[in-house]
Design brief:
This protein has about 140 residues and is mainly α. It contains 5 helices and no strands. The protein has helices at about 5-25, 30-60, 70-100, 105-110, 115-135. Helix 1 runs antiparallel to helix 5 (about 115-135), helix 3 (about 70-100) runs antiparallel to helix 4 and helix 3 runs antiparallel to helix 5 (about 115-135). The protein is elongated, with a radius of gyration of 16 Å. The termini are close together.
Length: about 140
């Protein structure tokens, strides 16, 4: 396993944790704490994305073994993960922009199902990574 991989997994987990904490803060109407949690989640997610892209640029893609168990499940999960990531990124950027510019009514409107896709993506990413490593025997 490459040395930057555990770091990106850790950043991914920290981003997901910050998202969940931020969600609990906004439900409790703790606006300042929610804002801090969301900025933290954004920072961790940004660092994760940079690390992820850097890892793939330096080491290339890793293929799931053709005859390994759970290949269909893995590919289905990976496809949903990629779709969620592509949908979530612009929603995150729009929501972040609205919140920083003080347009909170637009923030709530732009969220829609964003919380589900934004919080599901880190989880499906970790699961696909674990499945890939198990299939490779590492």
């Amino acid at each position: 396993m490459h040395s930057c991989r555990p770091l990106t997994l850790c950043l991914n987990g920290l981003a997901a944790t910050a998202l969940l904490i931020g969600f609990t803060f906004i439900r409790a109407r703790r606006i300042a704490a929610h804002r801090a949690a969301m900025i933290t989640a954004f920072a961790f997610s940004t660092l994760f994305l940079v690390g992820y892209i850097l890892h793939h640029a330096l080491h290339g893609d890793v293929r799931y073994p053709a005859h390994a168990a759970f290949r269909t499940f893995y590919l289905s999960l990976l496809a949903s993960h990629i779709i969620l990531a592509v949908v979530a990124l612009p929603l995150v950027l729009i929501t972040f922009f609205f919140s920083l510019s003080g347009r909170f009514h637009n923030t709530a409107r732009s969220l829609g199902g964003h919380f589900r896709s934004g919080s599901t993506c880190p989880v499906t990413g970790v699961i696909t990574y674990v499945l890939l490593r198990l299939a490779q025997g590492s």
